[in-house]
Design a protein that fits this description.
The complex is a heterodimer of chains A (290) and B (331). With 290 residues, chain A is of the alpha/beta class. Chain A has helices at residues 14-26, 47-59, 75-85, 97-105, 121-130, 143-150, 153-156, 181-185, 253-262, and strands spanning 2-5, 31-34, 63-67, 91-94, 110-112, 132-136, 163-177, 204-207, 213-218, 221-229, 243-246, 276-277. In chain A, helix 3 (75-85) packs across helix 4 (97-105). Chain B has 331 residues and is of the alpha/beta class. Chain B has two domains: 2-167 and 250-330, TIM Barrel (Alpha-Beta Barrel); 177-243, no CATH class. Chain B is 33% helix and 22% strand. Chain B has helices at 10-18, 44-56, 74-87, 97-106, 123-130, 145-154, 177-182, 186-189, 258-263, 278-297, 306-314, and strands spanning 2-6, 23-27, 60-65, 91-94, 111-114, 136-138, 158-166, 170-175, 198-202, 208-212, 215-220, 236-238, 241-243, 251-253, 268-271, 321-322. In chain B, the strands form three sheets. An eight-stranded parallel β-barrel of chain B has the order 1-2-3-4-5-6-7-15, surrounded by five helices. In chain B, strands 9-10-11 form a three-stranded antiparallel β-sheet, with no helix packed on it. Chain B has a two-stranded antiparallel ribbon with strand order 12-13. In chain B, helix 6 links the parallel strand 6 (136-138) and strand 7. In chain B, helix 1 (10-18) runs parallel beside helix 2 (44-56), helix 1 runs parallel beside helix 10 (278-297) and helix 2 packs parallel to helix 3 (74-87). Chain B is globular. Classes of the chains: A alpha/beta (290), B alpha/beta (331). Chain B: [4Fe-4S] cluster binds at residues 168, 175, 192, 232. Chain B: This is Ubiquinone biosynthesis protein UbiU. Chain B: Required for O(2)-independent ubiquinone (coenzyme Q) biosynthesis. Together with UbiV, is essential for the C6-hydroxylation reaction in the oxygen-independent ubiquinone biosynthesis pathway. Chain B: Forms a heterodimer with UbiV.
Chain lengths: 290, 331
């Protein structure tokens, strides 16, 4: 079982990002995804900065993948996407089929990110034919769903040709919009947002009127109010999941990485926080903790 | 420019064709479409009947098979495609790339449209889906008019846009908020904020509370109009303020954009609402038929008739309409 760090979903200052990846270089993580996946206006780090980090992490023995934007709307965003796809060195995670299209054009392998709608064995098989080498399962799918899918003959024949990866820790990306909810929360129009999301390195909490934390606003992305935490489900991933993804959180990401690594055969019950959830994997509503 | 109207039943379908729809879209009575509601949609016999009625009027029938197939019940989606082809559908509206591939290979003469649920928001994504022989793309409701224009000018594929109805503020097909709260999402179960999870409670002071799977979505003061608890349209608290944190309960209305949509060569205007009554479909269809005829007769002289706005507002969520993402201010 390998462990990965997904791309940072929040807008952090450059210095914070660089510190985070220096820690990653010294950690036991196997795979690191780099890049902006939420909003193209966030430009604390530019392409060259990410490439510099990528080289540093590769030298530290990590497999580096470049992760790309999820909601691509403007022609300028497609031009930027092309730069990442044409990087010439690192594997690319496509979070929109537009990315797959560009990579396919150049006959390059790709990772299908969690926002690619791939729900069944026929779709997996099609993506494999297009060059997919790793499939990051959509966050809303359960262990049962994954087991049914991987058990189909169409897949057992080719199971050695791709890896599966599951989002297992952090606030889950649940939706993307044309509207920026962080700007809206500050009464700013989207085109005058002044990048106010940099003030919310963990997003903005949304609670119901009776005090339940329901969502986290992160720019145009809406995240789960709970922190997904599958630290006690790693045993049930054996034989199904090749890579376990932790999504960078502002604090304690590397402590949790150690807890995950220590529990990869599922021997111990790690105590969960009150706002942790594991429902999706257990075939329940996503916000449930069992 | 085509007027494409919704029908969740035979009476709604007849209302659409009799009031001026050029085409009608329907779904099957199962989880293969994104409006999988109790009492709605057609079975195989209904589908054949729908095709006969629509064709008798010289119109087209589109069948939405636009959820994502499950591994263990893949056959349900395959059968839905076969059934629609057999029933005489003119067009299939598809989202799952495997279902697209199956339909493209098995029925090479059948017209295929890319559903909004496939979330194709840019020219490269449209290029991706071209390998499945699609002839038209239904654009998501997250795009601004500028972005629609940019796509229209870079692709030669037919484009369809949502003209009126419920407003989805998230990129369709990429929103798991509903399964996060209830376990069922549009992608996996064909429904958002499903009715069986809805609960209404009245407190002692007369406040009405709407809940979805026990989670409080909104509170309404006595006398305040209470809407269905679609989870993204509730009032929540952010930074000490309670407001519609994601979206107000309003309907999309693009009447005023008609000349621009026409100028950009948009092939089809889609009216949302397969869950609506035949009377609703009849009224909406009549207004949009008149509006499209007016813009086609005189694109530069077009203006929105007050009567159209009045009818549409009366049929809208919370009697409010918006240009949604098409308009920059919305953001």
């Amino acid at each position: 079982m390998k462990f990965s760090l997904g791309a940072i979903q929040y807008f952090w200052p450059k210095q914070v990002v660089q510190n985070f990846y220096r820690q990653a270089a010294d950690s036991a993580v196997d795979i690191v995804y780099l890049g902006e996946t939420v909003c193209s206006k966030r430009r604390e780090l530019k392409y060259e900065d990410y490439m510099e980090l990528a080289h540093m992490l590769r030298e530290a023995g990590k497999q580096v993948c470049l992760s790309t934007m999820t909601l691509l709307e403007a022609p300028s965003e497609l031009r930027e996407l092309r730069r990442y796809c044409d990087n010439g060195e690192f594997l690319v995670e496509a979070n929109d089929v537009g990315g797959i299209s560009l990579l396919q054009e150049n006959q390059l392998p790709f990772i299908a990110g969690p926002a690619i709608n791939c729900y069944n064995h026929h779709s997996v098989r099609r993506l494999l034919n297009m060059g997919m080498t790793r499939w990051v399962v959509p966050v809303e799918l359960s262990r049962d769903w994954l087991q049914d899918l991987l058990g189909q003959t169409l897949i057992t024949d080719v199971r050695g040709c791709f890896e599966t990866e599951v989002f297992a820790f952090g606030h889950m990306p649940l939706a993307w919009s044309g509207r920026c909810f962080t700007a809206r929360s500050e009464n700013r129009p989207k085109d005058q947002c002044e990048l106010c999301c940099i003030q919310y390195p963990e997003g903005r909490t949304v609670t119901s009127q009776d005090g339940q934390q329901v969502f986290v606003l992160n720019g145009i992305q809406t995240q789960s109010g709970t922190r997904y935490n599958l630290v006690n489900q790693l045993g049930s991933m054996q034989g199904l999941v090749d890579v376990v993804r932790l999504s960078p959180q502002l604090d304690d990401t590397f402590d949790w990485l150690e807890k995950f690594r220590a529990n990869q055969h599922g021997e111990t019950q790690v105590p969960l926080a009150k706002l942790d959830s594991n429902g999706y994997w257990l075939n329940l509503a996503g916000l449930v903790q069992k | 420019m085509e007027l494409l109207c919704p029908a969740g039943s035979m009476p709604a379908l007849k209302a659409a064709v009799e009031n001026g729809a050029d085409a009608v879209y329907v779904g099957l009575k199962d989880e293969t479409n994104a409006r999988h509601f109790a009492g709605l949609n057609l079975d195989e016999a209904g589908l054949a009947e729908a095709a006969r009625v629509v064709h008798r009027h010289g119109k087209k029938l589109h069948v939405a098979i636009n959820t994502f197939a499950h591994a263990d019940t893949w056959e349900t989606w395959r059968r839905a495609v076969d059934m629609a082809a057999r029933a005489g559908a003119d067009v299939l509206i598809l989202a799952d790339l495997a279902v697209l591939a199956y339909a493209a290979e098995r029925y090479p003469k059948l017209e295929l449209h890319l559903s909004v649920q496939a979330s194709a928001t840019n020219a490269a994504a449209i290029e991706f889906y071209r390998q499945f022989r699609i002839q038209r793309v239904v654009l998501p409701r997250v795009l601004s008019m500028n972005q629609v224009r940019a796509i229209a000018r870079t692709t030669d594929i037919e484009l369809e846009v949502f003209a009126f109805g419920s407003l989805c503020i998230m990129a369709e097909g990429r929103c798991y908020l509903s399964s996060y709260m209830t376990g069922e999402s549009p992608n996996t179960a064909g429904a958002c904020s499903p009715a069986r999870f809805v609960r209404w409670d009245e407190t002692e002071d007369g406040t009405l509370e709407s809940r979805l799977n026990d989670i409080l979505i909104d509170r309404f003061a006595p006398g305040e109009t209470a809407g269905y608890p679609t989870l993204c349209k509730g009032r929540f608290e952010v930074g000490g303020e309670t407001y519609h944190a994601l979206e107000e309960p309003t309907s999309l209305n693009t009447l005023s954009l008609l000349p621009e949509l026409y100028r950009e060569g948009i092939a089809s205007l889609k009216i949302e609402g397969r869950q609506r009554s035949p009377a609703y479909v009849a009224q909406i269809t009549r207004v949009w038929r008149q509006a499209i005829d007016a813009v086609m007769a005189d694109p530069t002289g077009f203006s929105v008739a007050q009567e159209w706005d009045r009818v549409l507002a009366s049929l809208s969520e919370g009697s409010q309409t918006t240009l949604g993402a098409y308009h920059r201010k919305w953001k």
